[in-house]
Amino acid sequence: MSTVAYEIVDVFTDRPFAGNPLAVVLGAEHLDTAQMQLLAREFNLAETVFVLPPTDPAATYRVRIFTGSQELPFAGHPSVGTAVTLMRQGRFGPGRVVQECGAGLLPLDVTAAGAATLTGAPPRLGAPADPAALLEITGLTAEDRETSAVPREAGCGLDWIFFPVRRSALATIHLDPWAAARHGVTGLSVFSWADGQAHARVFVPGDAVWEDPATGSAALGLGVWLVAAGWLPGEGVSTFRVHQGVEMKRPSILDCTVTAESGAATSATVSGHVYPVASGKIAVPPFIG
Question: Which of 7, 29, 42, 47 is catalytic?
Fold first, then answer.
């Protein structure tokens, strides 16, 4: 039986068994899409990433990213985790690398200490979201809302709905996936904000893993939201930190920047450490069809 090598790493943490676990499958160029999806379902993590040779000469490597049920054009913790893993294996040294993925070419800066900074795709600010629908989905009350800003969609390669609430409300969320399906909500970041620090819970209703302990793409999008809401300056570079995964007993820290001009975000970064926890080989599923 043929096999393929993999590593499991914890992303956005400097210690094992915290952060967001990620499966990095190496030498995946002989796998087709169905095989990748089956392997992602077998690992049963929030995401599994498959490392491939680049098709663009400007890229250092290429990745395909899968949840247990679908392929994503981009995700933050797979991007950070893969860059550090490949650097640690000696595929390249510390410094600037370029990842090719479904969202395009994304630069990452990797350190010898096992951390990486990801620059997201161009920021996008979407339409406002219905607060009543979000309260129904999260099981919160009107008193739990932070009413000084409007919930809305934003992202840097992958969009999320951002819903500001009071800090005390985060621990009381009871996600209703059926309500989320009725309202068409597939990605939701519920967060509190104070003194340059966000505490967040990030949900993917309907996916195999419905809550994420650390979400780089949501941290990037949060910077876009914060500038649009006027909670961060509309000019220059701002820094902030996201705490996530606390309620899941997998605490994570995501350090972020957002650059703004004329009241709108123009770029965003997210940084974090990566800790290796396991490695091995897994059987390659048979071709389907």
Answer: 47
